[in-house]
C-alpha cells in the first residue's frame, strides 16, 4: 500500500513540476519583405477575405465552409470557418486597424480544441516601394494543458505555415 502511495505522490510531484516549468504563453511571428509600397500592401491585407488567396490553411481545405458577418476591412468583421481535421472550426474577428500600420484580430478556435489567440499583421516601410509584413499570433497556454507544449514545438509548426503563407502573399502582391 505504501508503494502505491509513493508512486502516486511521485506522479503528482512530477505533474506539479511540469506545470511550473512548461510555457504559459506563446508568441509566434514571421516576416517577409515585399516589393510594393506600404499603402498597397496594407489595402490588400486589411480585407480578411483576401486571406483565402494566400493562407496556408485555405490550401489545406479548399472546400471549407465559410460565413462572414459585417463589412470586411472594418473593425467587427467576423470570418467563420468549418473545415476538415487540418483546419478545424473557428472564427476570426477584426479588433482594431491602424491605417497603413497594422490589423489586429482575435482568433477563436472551437475544434479540434477550444482556444483563443491574438493575431496581427504589421506593415512597415523599409524604403519607398519596399515593405516588411510581419504575421504573428500570441496567447496563453492554460494549466495543465501547458505541459503539452513541452513536447510540441508550436513555433516550428505554426511558423512553417506562416512562412508558407507569407511566401504566397509576396507572390500575389508582386505580380
Automatic annotation (TrEMBL):
<dbReference type="InterPro" id="IPR023393">
    <property type="entry name" value="START-like_dom_sf"/>
</dbReference>
<feature type="transmembrane region" description="Helical">
    <location>
        <begin position="6"/>
        <end position="22"/>
    </location>
</feature>
<keyword id="KW-0472">Membrane</keyword>
<keyword id="KW-0812">Transmembrane</keyword>
<keyword id="KW-1133">Transmembrane helix</keyword>
<protein>
    <submittedName>
        <fullName>SRPBCC family protein</fullName>
    </submittedName>
</protein>
